[in-house]
Amino acid sequence: MSSLRTGTIAVIACGGIIRLLSFGIRSSYGVFLQPVSTDLGWSREIFALTIALQNLFWGFAQPFAGMIADRYGSARVIIGGALMFGAGTLLMGYATTPLTAHIGAGFLVGVGIAGCGFSTVLAAVGRSVAEEWRSMALGVASAGGSLGLLVMVPMGQAFIDSVGWSVALIYLAALSLLMVPLAAALAGKPAAPAAANNQTITESLREAAGHNSFLFLNAGYFVCGFHVTFITTHFPAYVVDLGLGAEIGAWAIGIVGIVNVFSALGAGALGDKFNKKYVLSTLYLCRAAAIAIFMMTPPSVTSVMVFAAMIGLFWLGTVPVTSALVMQMFGLKHASMLLGIVFLSHQLGSFLGAWIGGYMFELSGSYDMVWWISVGLGVAAAALHWPIDERPIERPAPA
């Protein structure tokens, strides 16, 4: 336990709170889909496209945010990202046209969360902890994002009920600025191990691109993005379509979050004890099973809440294990950048999960086809992780 010093604990705690705010506020956008679309006379596909663009911009910006964080430290990147995140959420509160929504909740929030989201925060946490505790520490920080689902999604619904969706987004924009002072705990330029000091960005990219296991990991994380964003964006509206109240959908997402706190911690601990690729395969296969069972169960408040608890068990546990696996295979020097690339694949899946959900609903009046696509993708992701080679890359010793 000597490796968990006071400073390290502060990094993990502040990183977890930043994750709570960034992922929680961003995930609350799902409860805005129906009121925004109804009030402005938009189809669901318009709002879904906004969220899809958000994920796309987030994904493409993430590797560059990672490169900057690897070179200059995470704190500056988190502060810049938090300011853009807040500005985009504020602009969405005043949106009256699809273009305004695409710029605010799409571009600004997407690029902003690249700076204050998964990869930047988790890379800073990973560097602060010894390898034997790394997966667990990443699980603790990731659990902050899970708590964000529990805290921010019902809070967003409560704001909508009390002051309307426009003012609710302004409130959330103000809350996002709390990430700025929290970033101070993650300040400092990262120190790389001596053996990796001579590896350039280009060499790191070439090394990762030529590693089959890195490609398998990217493909699997694509599926994670599809699942997570389809559910957070469309599940609250889907619950309303079932004839249940909007608050049921919001609390269901909250249940996903609270259960996933234990999932993230448990997956992090399992990743320290067992082969990470097998932990990931199990998580994806269980996700597929949970969705399939939900689709074959008659809809009710009970079935919605049970599904939320089931999917929460296998939700973001993929994040600490995937992150730790990248660091284990490729080291720490370019960790933020490589995590950003893996996360780009995640966000390409997120783009399709958000957009296809809206498109298929407008086309057929139902989400059923997308749910079954999600089942098939979960099985495919489980198979993709099985052949991954977890061993650290062997590099020639520096002269």
Features:
single chain, 399 residues, mainly alpha, Growth Hormone, Chain: A, 80% helix
Helix content: over 70%
CATH topology: Growth Hormone, Chain: A
List SSEs in N-to-C order.
Answer: HHHHHHHHHHHHHHHHH
Estimate the strand proportion.
under 5%
Q: What would you report as the Rg, rounded to the nearest angstrom?
A: 20 Å
Describe this structure in words.
This protein is mainly alpha-helical and 399 residues long. The protein has one domain (6-385): MFS general substrate transporter like domains (Growth Hormone, Chain: A), CATH 1.20.1250.20. Helices cover 80% and strands 0% of the residues. It is built from 17 helices and no strands. It has helices spanning 6-27, 33-40, 44-72, 74-93, 98-116, 118-127, 131-163, 165-176, 179-182, 201-209, 212-241, 246-273, 276-295, 301-313, 318-330, 335-364, 368-385. Helix 6 runs antiparallel to helix 7 (131-163). It is globular and about 60 Å long.
What's the short version?
With 399 residues, the protein is mainly α.
